[in-house]
Design goal:
- The chain is an all-alpha fold.
- It folds into 2 domains: 100 residues, no CATH class; 41 residues, no CATH class.
- It contains 6 helices and no strands.
- Helix 3 packs antiparallel against helix 4 and helix 4 packs across helix 5.
- The longest helix is centred in the N-terminal third of the chain and has 22 residues.
- The protein is elongated and about 50 Å long.
- The chain binds zinc ion.
- The site of zinc ion has 8 residues, from loops.
Amino acid sequence: MYQFSRAIYRELAGYIDGPQNAKCSSSGANHEQVLRACEATVERLATDRHYFAHPARTLFCDIRSYFPMGAQERVYQVVSRYMRFAQQYVAENPLAGYAEIGKPLQCRATTRKGDACQRVPLPHNGYCPSHQHLAETEDHEQLAAA
Ligand SMILES: [Zn+2]
């Protein structure tokens, strides 16, 4: 997964603004913030993609303040291009994302006791076999909302 955050950072590093306020930040700090935001976004995409509807928009909002006005368009294009690749990658390799981030793959449901279900989910909807009905409910809710 981190190949995507590294690629975004590499393409954008040259555009990152210097410190806005020389007293409290160095230019290295801006670079670090951008890289961190990219990493956090791909981590979330790998482990929580069902609840992460607009990764490109989210990442762009997180990092846009580190770039000058003239580079915003470019930043958005780079972010949305790589986020498309990343989304496609996690859709095709749902287990690989988890493995790379180092988090265990878990069903998205909560048990009757209120704990997170520990069972291994099916890749296509993130629920284990005993919680498949929740995925159907979710589809109905999304249809109702639309
Ligand atoms: Zn479950």
